[in-house]
Structures are given as C-alpha cells and as structure tokens.
From TrEMBL:
SUPFAM superfamilies: P-loop containing nucleoside triphosphate hydrolases. This is ABC transporter domain-containing protein. GO terms for molecular function: ATP binding; ATP hydrolysis activity. Residues 258-268 have a biased composition (Polar residues). InterPro entries: AAA+_ATPase (IPR003593), ABC_transporter-like_ATP-bd (IPR003439), P-loop_NTPase (IPR027417). Transmembrane segments: none annotated. Residues 12-237 form the ABC transporter domain. Keywords: ATP-binding, Nucleotide-binding. Residues 271-281 have a biased composition (Gly residues). It comes from the Eukaryota. Residues 254-281 are annotated as: Disordered.
Length: 281
C-alpha cells in the first residue's frame, strides 16, 4: 500500500512567476523561490504584499503561467495535487462548522476514521471536547475543530494562510509544535503566512520576505540574523527582523494616500468647491 512517504519529495519551486489579476492589476512580479523538502517557511510581508496571492497559486487554486510552479515536481493547477492542503480564508468561512453538528461526525466526514491515531492526537493537542456542538462553541473553539479537520489527512505540503488568530497562546504553541514534529518525522513541507510571531522564534527553517508582489529576499533563517546583531528581550530576534523589514517596506512604499502630495491635490481642487474656495485672510 502506498504511504505518504512514497510520494515525490515535496519541494516547492517557483520560477519567474508573474501574475496579473482579472482587472489587469499586478499581483506578483517575477517571483523566484526554491523551498526544500522538509522545510518550514514563514512568509513575511505587510498587508497586501502578495502572500495570499502566492499561496493560492502554489496550491493550484489559481492558474499560474506554464512552467512557473512545481510542487513535488508537479504543476499544481494541471495535476490537481493530492497531498497539498491549503488552509485559508475560504476554508475558515465554510458554513458547515456553524451548524448544529457534533465533532466526531465532522471529523469522520473528512476521513477521521481512516487515521484514528492522527485524529486522536489532534483532538488532544488542540484540546477539543468531543461533546461540543458546533453552533454553540466560541470562535477559538470552532477554529480548533477546523484545524483538526484540515490537518487530519497526512498532507505532503501544507500552505497556511494566517488561520490561527483565534487560538489562545497555549493552543497555538501546541499547534506549531505539532507542525514542527510533522516535518521532522515524515516527508512534508510547510509554508505559513502570518503576522503573529509568538512562539515562532525557533520554528522556521526558511524565511520569505514579500513586498508589493515581489520577493525581496528568501533563504534559510540563519542567513538573515546577521541583520539583527542585537535584539531586546521584548522582541525575539525574528520579531526584530520582521519589524525592520516592515519599516523598510513602508519607507520604500510611502504613505498609501500620497500625503506628501496633499498640498498639491488641494490646490488642484481650487474652484471646484469645498476647502479650495475659502479665502485666506
Ligand atoms: N482579485 C483581486 N483583484 C485585484 N487585486 C487584488 C485581488 N486580490 C487581491 N488583490 C490585491 O493584491 C495585493 C496582494 O493581496 P494579497 O491578498 O495577496 O496580500 P497579503 O500579503 O496576503 O495581505 P494580508 O497580509 O493583508 O493578508 C493587494 O494589494 C490586494 O488589494
């Protein structure tokens, strides 16, 4: 019988990937990445940097240009990748987890009975009460059940698009430790887009820094730490590095609504009504 370990090694290769949205606006610009099998990559970037766009393309949910993406050596869109799990916003909003349904039924519906040991481990680490009914749980409790559902089948590539925001600190820490163990004990690879760095200092093997649809830098995590020779106890070294990157990105981009041009804009409105008509005394 085939086991997940018989599958091709789950590397993620992105070659010169540019992507435009349907309205013609630029989504990604010449993205180049080569994430090795077994890696745990953090995707870092400000809001709107292109993280979700990249993850959706890598997962095969969006069509990328030919020969730009290979996951375990395969084109994710053409080959409908078995073993690639993408957990993002659409998945979080799935309405079934808000109905009056019990947890064992939900877990069985996603194959829980085929992987009883994994199911029981996930129930344990995510501290799930099997007597919960899903219409009567908190957001964080619902998220934990969803995570158990999403992680149950032994994926080879896991693409996570910040879906841990509702978890309390301990649940999130257990969840991250589980993911780390997974990459250490079987052939699998993770890419995680997040803004929350708690408990993550020792987690990633690789970092990808995105800005305005481009990958500004990527590589093994230790190759970046010389950028942060000193760090405070308030932030981890990773936290300091990410803060530095985001500040640089903001400086490079400038303010969203062009405040530096504001005087000019108001002048050009003169005569059109509003403040432009006021006379200086
Ligand atoms: N369907 C779309 N059509 C046009 N532009 C889009 C579309 N979806 C996203 N964008 C734009 O593409 C850019 C990247 O969006 P994306 O969702 O990939 O960012 P992100 O890095 O995941 O941000 P966040 O941290 O806020 O989740 C944003 O400027 C966004 O407005």
């Amino acid at each position: 019988m085939a086991s997940p370990n018989d599958s091709p090694k789950p590397s993620i290769e992105v070659q010169n990937l540019s992507y435009k949205f349907q309205d013609g606006s630029a989504g990604l610009d010449h993205v180049q990445l080569d994430l090795p099998p077994g890696s745990r990559t953090l995707l870092i970037g400000a809001n709107g940097a292109g993280k979700t766009t990249l993850l959706r393309l890598v997962s095969g949910k969006r069509l990328a240009p030919n020969n730009t993406i290979a996951v375990g050596g395969k084109d994710p869109f053409k080959e409908g990748l078995e073993g690639v799990t993408y957990l993002g916003v659409e998945w979080v909003l799935n309405s079934i987890v808000r109905t009056d349904i019990d947890v064992p039924t939900l877990l069985a519906s996603v194959g829980g009975n085929a992987y009883p040991e994994r199911r029981d481990e996930l129930v344990d680490i995510l501290d799930i009460d099997l007597s919960w009914r899903m219409h009567a749980v908190s957001d964080g409790e619902r998220r934990r059940v969803q995570l158990a559902m999403g992680l149950l089948r032994p994926w080879q590539v896991l693409l996570l698009d910040e879906i841990t925001v509702d978890l309390d600190l301990l649940s999130r820490s257990n969840f991250l430790a589980f993911l780390k163990r997974e990459t250490e004990t079987r052939a699998c690879t993770i890419v995680y887009a997040t803004h929350i760095l708690d408990n993550l200092a020792q987690w990633p093997t690789h970092l990808v820094h995105m800005h305005l649809g481009k990958v500004k830098a990527w590589g093994p995590v230790e190759t970046f730490y010389n950028q942060i020779p000193q760090w405070t106890s308030e932030n981890s070294r990773l936290g300091e590095l990410v803060l530095k990157w985001l500040k640089e990105d903001l400086d490079a981009r400038g303010p969203r609504n062009g405040r530096s041009n504001q005087g000019k804009t108001y002048q050009s409105l003169e005569g059109l009504g509003g403040y432009g008509l006021e006379k200086r005394s």
